[in-house]
Amino acid sequence: MKQGLSKKETFVVGLMLFALFFGGGNMIFPPSLGQAAGTSVWLAIAGFLVTGVGLPLLGVIAIGLTGTDVQSLGSRIHPIFGVIFTVVLYLAIGPLFGIPRTGTVAYEIGVTPFLPEGAAKNGISLLIYTIGFFGITYWLSLNPSRLVDRIGKLLTPALLIILALLAIKTIATPMGVPQAPQADFQEGTFFKGFLEGYLTMDTLAALVFGIVVINAVKAKGITSGKSIAKVCIQAGLIAAAGLALVYLALGYLGATSVDAIGYKDNGGLILSSSANVLFGSLGNIVLSLAISFACLTTSVGLVSACGQYFSKILPAIPYKWIILALTVFSAVIANFGLTQLITFSVPLLTAIYPLAIVLILLSFVDRIFNRAPEVYALSLAFTGIVSVMDGLKAGGIPLGETGKFFNEFLPLFPEGIGWLVPAIAGALIGYAIALFRRPHLKAKVKGSH
Questions:
Q1: Cβ of 189: how many Cβ atoms within 10 Å?
Q2: Angle formed by the axes of helices 338-365 and 373-394, nearest 10°
Q3: How many CA atoms are closer than 13 Å to the CA of 443, on its beta-carbon side?
Q4: CA atoms within 13 Å, Cβ hemisphere of 102
Q5: Distance CA 301, CA 215 (A)
Q6: Rounded distance, CA 187 to CA 352, Å?
Q7: 406 alpha carbon, distance to own chain's centre
Q8: Of 302, 312, 307, which is closest to residue 324 (Cα–Cα)?
Q9: Dist. CA 362–CA 315, nearest whole Å
């Protein structure tokens, strides 16, 4: 029995985790943020790094410390909540949105620039592409124990080389100088970046990918919970460092791109136009390769993680049939197009994202309150009330007088993080109730120190 992984093996796991996190969406958001923030790009990126890197890292560590999966974290409130929340989470970042998005982003940014306008819009080319894309995803996901070798040793180095070329060229021959911040970024720049980091959805993905890392480590003969947690932390730090460097480079690319390409409506257009300026006729080819590798690795990770979870709760159905259903369903959903996917998914993801954040943060301090379920339950309940309101607002549903009340009296609600104060209040009330119901809890807490 191995007691731990070598430095090289740990580094490969870290590369795998980086590649799983780094999908096409991650390449789109930092350039857009950079253009909008202009001369304030570094302050905006600092906020983006908190939610786009810091929280996902905490998510991986939380799963590594528990040694199991997100359902175990959710079960600290109640076993039924653990199952429901986990199923919703996997469906949201899996077949309902996350997996289909990998195919549509890869197609729209990596393929359509090379197609005639008519072919790009008739839907047949998207259908053909998604069949091939999700066919490869299915093949790579068939044997999850080899996921580290296939992604960590093959796909990730190729992705990193392409990203390095883009970053080096951007720094060596910048396209221009940052402009004045746009209106939305003239005030509260850090928090604007903080909220923009939500769009990566990597905190949700961390709760899914954590179990992929654990299983990959176990497949190499590591069974000690302490050793597995150590590898998860080290791999998480490697992935976080990689993500931070890429986000800094892409944010700088966006900030310095305005002189050469003007302002663009989204990060995809910024990237494709910038690639043409930086690399000439090879620009779109370089970008296409980067997007394809990024999206494929994320797709494989999501399918594998979802397949492993649903195999556990549906043991009568073989893993290969579950991932076949996931990839076929995702291919069908992907053909509705990226815009429709985002419109459908953003309200749901906005509602569950704060719940995942609070669950992760509580898991790090639960020794303080001796893992009292009242703390988890009330903190998550108060968070959920506000996050559901945020989800309705994101879906364009009028909130009426309730929305006005929240805007006026709930701190940070207009900024999109109104759930923070209720989460803290719920935790404190839950702790007080736990102490009242079980007075001996206070003594246990003191004893734990």
A1: 23
A2: 160
A3: 3
A4: 34
A5: 12
A6: 27
A7: 28
A8: 307
A9: 31
With H, G, I as helix, E, B as strand and everything else as coil, classify residue 178. coil
In this prediction, residues 158-174 reach a mean pLDDT of: 81
- DSSP class of 2: B
Judging by beta carbons within 10 Å of its beta carbon (0-12, 13-18, 19+), is residue 311 exposed, middle or buried? middle
What Rg, from alpha-carbon coordinates, does the chain have?
A: 22
DSSP class of residue 396 equals: T
CA distances from 264 to 72, 107, 176 (A): 43, 19, 15
Contact 399, 406 (CB under 8 A): yes
Question: Token pair of 163, please?
Answer: 């990203």
Going by C-beta distance under 8 Å and a sequence separation of 6 or more, which residues neighbour residue 432?
A: none
Three-class SS string for 198-210?
Answer: HHHCHHHHHHHHH
Q: What is the DSSP string of 400-436?
A: HHHHHHHHHHSTTTTTT-TTHHHHHHHHHHHHHHHHH
- d(C-alpha 137, C-alpha 131), whole Å: 10
CA atoms within 13 A on the CB side of 420: 9
Structure letter (DSSP) for residue 266: S
**Cα–chain-centroid distance for residue 285?**
26
Entry pTM: 0.82
- Angle at the Cα of 54 (from 109 to 39), degrees rounded to 5? 65
pLDDT single digits (tens) 31-81: 989 999 999 999 999 999 998 999 999 998 888 887 667 888 888 888 898
What tokens were used for 389?
Answer: 């309101």
Cβ 106 vs Cβ 296: under 8 Å? yes
DSSP string, 40-55: GHHHHHHHHHIIIIIH
Per-residue model confidence as pLDDT tens digits over 190-213: 888 888 887 788 888 888 777 777
